[in-house]
């Protein structure tokens, strides 16, 4: 029988997953689909794909906690992987995302945002500058169709203006996320190069147990880890090798992935950010460098910079909230101590690590100070809450020594 904590977590993350449910016949399958089924993965629809939400060997809470102390493998092959080619690739990329791509050193990258002309967030993405002469872009699966259409339209316009740029959908490659503090020790067994020199957001072409891969030190859990782009026809071989070298390596699903990212204070597109929110409101201005801010040459720069310069005197902000006694859910109202509605929860769940009911919410700018007392309305009841700093759980990214 599921514990109360597991039932609460399952309900929280099933609500998120159900937003993308489709009939089984309509769902796309990753190259690991049969492997997931063979291992007993509970398959659900997410962003048009059939993916495991959990596995029978670990409960949601156990899988979450295991990732914080061991190694977990997540199938993220549903993500959109693109290569941007041409001598004007950097100039083009900076015309559609907010990152300072020009300043990236070879084989490094960063989180960025694709913005629209109103300053809204079309998607969040990861961009890396490859020493092989192209840019590598990874976008969310739920936004893949609109992202690709948007980027191809902008690329066509750029080509029409004389720019040398082309977009290639990376063919026949899966993507797995290997996450947890023991990732380096496990992966090093199959790699000849020294992984201690591969820092957070650095990427390299590496043979992993003889399989040609791109290994990038990043992830969506707040832990140290990597994402590995691997040929479709060898991804099962790679996962089987990883799970065979140590008992500390476990398969994990969407449920643990969502609660892990929430503890780390990371946004879920469609819940915490979308085309109606700006980087200022979403507390993501750190993705825009001083050079890009000064140049105001990214989509929606006028709106975004005007908001930024007016802060903190107006608007809403994404914040962390801890609720007493009851878990917060998306769309639950956030109230001030007088009972007036001042915001809304966008993500919420019991935290396996902190043992608190943690939430992300957008609140009026007057309530963004840490320690500010608030309330959350859960159906017909109101529960005390407090504005807190994010991440809720300290992150453990593998950064260079200072």
Distance between the termini: 48 Å
Structural class: alpha+beta
Number of separate strands: 20
Number of helices: 10
Description:
The protein has 402 residues and is α+β, with helices and mostly antiparallel strands. The chain is 24% helix and 30% strand. The protein is built from 10 helices and 20 strands. It has helices at 4-18, 33-38, 60-69, 89-94, 144-160, 183-187, 235-245, 254-263, 290-295, 301-310, and strands at residues 28-29, 42-46, 49-54, 71-75, 80-85, 108-115, 121-129, 135-139, 166-169, 173-179, 203-208, 211-216, 225-231, 249-251, 316-323, 333-335, 341-350, 357-364, 373-378, 381-388. A 6-stranded mixed sheet has the order 11-12-13-10-4-14, with helices on both faces. Strands 15-18-17-16-19-20 form a 6-stranded antiparallel beta barrel. Strands 6-7-8-5-9 form a 5-stranded antiparallel sheet. A hairpin with a 5-residue loop joins strand 6 (108-115) and strand 7 (121-129). Helix 1 (4-18) packs across helix 8 (254-263). The longest helix is centred in the middle third of the chain and has 17 residues, at 144-160. Residues 18-22 have low confidence and may be disordered.
Give the topology.
Layout: H1 4-18, E1 28-29, H2 33-38, E2 42-46, E3 49-54, H3 60-69, E4 71-75, E5 80-85, H4 89-94, E6 108-115, E7 121-129, E8 135-139, H5 144-160, E9 166-169, E10 173-179, H6 183-187, E11 203-208, E12 211-216, E13 225-231, H7 235-245, E14 249-251, H8 254-263, H9 290-295, H10 301-310, E15 316-323, E16 333-335, E17 341-350, E18 357-364, E19 373-378, E20 381-388
Helix pairs in contact: 1-8, 3-8
